[in-house]
Amino acid sequence: MANTPQAKKRIRRNTARTIVNKNRVSRIRTLVKKVEAAVAAGDKAAATAALAAAQPEMARGVAKGVLHKNTVARKYSRLTKSVNAIA
Description:
Blueprint: H1 5-41, H2 44-63, H3 69-84
Helix pairs in contact: 1-2, 2-3
């Protein structure tokens, strides 16, 4: 258990940030699933729109330090490739 005031404050801040970060990652996962669902359905217009909505949120996750830069770059690449592959 934390004894110093600084450690107690750090625990409070960590729990608050954890909630924000989990919400951010959850939102990103949901947007990525929407892109994948549109690709699976073969709807290029919906997939393109979903990808356009997902990309800024993923970039924000990198900027906030929630996701790793290379992980997001890999996901961008794979999602873009799958959207472009729709006939």
